[in-house]
């Protein structure tokens, strides 16, 4: 059963909150994990926020207080990949980044020198979501990739939710650059197994010791499948059990909401 597992991975948007609205029962569920000393990690594809900004948003929207070390973003997954590709750190290598201040700060801390143009030999291109992007930014990244720079994408989400509807996400930017440069990026966020493996590494747990809880079949559940982690779909966001089909993520368990999840916990 799902509750004989040691640790829990959880999505945020659509699972713990929807935009600026809390999801009923999520606060109590996370507090129960904390009270029972269950290892857990909140795993998000959002590369716009630092750990502190994620924690502040959780507190403001859902009145949930979590330690910063219980947050794992696609920026963390990016750094996990970079540590494998560059074991000695950035070593001053020239990097071009389209992304948030949080991404850029972590890349600098890793040891890369962030550059603004093609005047230097760019060795790394990192693409995340930047809502102030220009054509020059896209062209510079594309040309650098064509010239041999290693190409990383924080997360493949083509859509990004806004108050008025969906707008282009990091995945849309990465897809555009990749198609023009004819080069696929290393994808770090869900549904890549990389973000799951990175979170497991922080928890010091194996895949078979954990459950992934999420609302999205194509990101949360598929990421769990790719990493061979038990997957639980909670019907509080994007998908329901009626959406499960061949080619989508395949949940091992489906619950309607946190009330049903808590009932299963008590019965297990």
Description:
The chain is an alpha/beta fold. It folds into 2 domains: 150 residues, HAD superfamily/HAD-like (Rossmann fold, 3-Layer(aba) Sandwich), CATH 3.40.50; 101 residues, HAD superfamily/HAD-like (Rossmann fold, 3-Layer(aba) Sandwich). 37% of the residues lie in helices and 20% in strands. Strands 5-4-1-13-14-15 form a 6-stranded parallel sheet, with helices on both faces. Strands 7-6-8-9-12 form a 5-stranded parallel sheet, sandwiched between helices. Strands 2-3 form a two-stranded antiparallel sheet. Helix 3 crosses helix 7 and helix 5 crosses helix 6. The relative contact order is 0.16. GO terms for molecular function: phosphatase activity.
Oligomer state equals single chain
Based on the structure given, which CATH architecture of the largest domain is correct?
Answer: 3-Layer(aba) Sandwich
Q: Can you count the beta strands?
A: 15
Number of helices: 9
By CATH reckoning, the class of the largest domain would read Alpha Beta
Q: How is the CATH topology of the largest domain named?
A: Rossmann fold
- Report helical residue fraction: 25-40%
CATH-defined superfamily of the largest domain: HAD superfamily/HAD-like
Choose one word for the global shape: globular
- Fraction of residues in β-strands: 15-25%
Organism: Aerococcus christensenii
GO cellular component, one term: cytoplasm
InterPro entries: HAD-like_sf (IPR036412), HAD-SF_hydro_IIA (IPR006357), HAD_sf (IPR023214)
GO molecular function: phosphatase activity
